[in-house]
């Protein structure tokens, strides 16, 4: 029995396997030929692995930057990094985390079946990170193992159902479609940043899209997103490298390679990673969306797959870079504020700012153009800098570690659950989860009624407008 459970957990922790299974089932229920089923399933898995490989390349390119930044500016503190904290957590709470993750996915499907929020969260690795954080906080609260798994799974399933719903209207605006959702724990930070960006929208003085940036003919090569990203990152890397100095880089990071050559190659590697991500994204979207429709028609009508952050990058590549840089700037400002205030210093996690800042940039550009892209990205940077600071006190002994969870959804969920426990113990924590469920279903009922009312009004007026756009936008 334990062996079977272990295999199932290994499967469901692999997003490439999950999306391939979704593709296989979706194509099968549509009655596709064996050839089409095999082809679509394999292409989906390979496309997702290409995407993951690109993310790995980006991470490898960014790792030295964090070390250079810390050394150059003599900053010590907590670095938000999911991969770093998860290794520590699983040593203590591995079994609880795995079970919360597994049953939380089932809760996600049930909630999608029974509400209007029909989002199936397919980004398995970040959902697993969320499960691990829930396991930590609920262990700190003192729940016994069985109660922890039951209550934790209910919390997990609710969170990964709400997360895509928070930003779906922005996803629809940015992509000009409504067939895919964001499955990344950056959603709450993206929501705040994009809402602030939306407030800057002006009918009198509209801001042009980041994708309409005009380059002089002599700089026509900058129209190529790959080139633009490589050059921009090269400038940033070289500046930080000059502050860090050649001795540190060549002895600690580059293995003796000239420090300028080293950082320029890392900048080019970053751009290469983004290029690979975009290629993988296209393959997955081409295969998973049509296949997923087959499943949604049979299992959860009109359900949308919630996929990882890079899925949005192809909608506005320039906005990804601008949003990332603006988010990182927000992280630096937040870090300075903490240093001046004498609190624990949260050092900007470059990967988190790239992923969350990139998505915020894309969505904010869709709402308010270039101005919105910069403002939204900056606000997101502040959010994902201060939330980890609030999260640290509720993680028990892990709160004194030199790393923590990086994305906004972890911070928001951790603050709600952790401080409920601090204020009223296990009872208040359970009450908080119950209240969230009440709000979830109440929102579902209210939005459904409003949409039905709008549909009737549109039918009366013979309008072709979308009721869901009216409600969610």
Describe the protein's architecture and organization:
The chain has helices spanning 2-12, 15-29, 34-73, 82-114, 124-141, 145-166, 168-175, 187-199, 225-244, 246-253, 259-298, 317-341, 350-391, 408-461, 467-472, and strands at residues 79-80, 119-121, 181-182, 304-307, 403-404. The longest helix is centred in the last third of the chain and has 54 residues, at 408-461. Mean pLDDT is 82; it is low at 463-473. It is mostly helical and 473 residues long. The strands form two sheets. A three-stranded parallel sheet has the order 2-4-3, with helices on both faces. It has 15 helices and five strands. It is globular.
Entry summary:
This protein has 473 residues and is mainly α.
Counted by DSSP, the helix tally is: 15
**Strands in their spatial order, largest beta sheet:** 2-4-3
Query: What's the pLDDT, averaged over the residues?
Result: 82
What string, H for helix and E for strand, traces the elements in order? HHHEHEHHHEHHHHEHHEHH
> Helicity, in percent?
over 70%
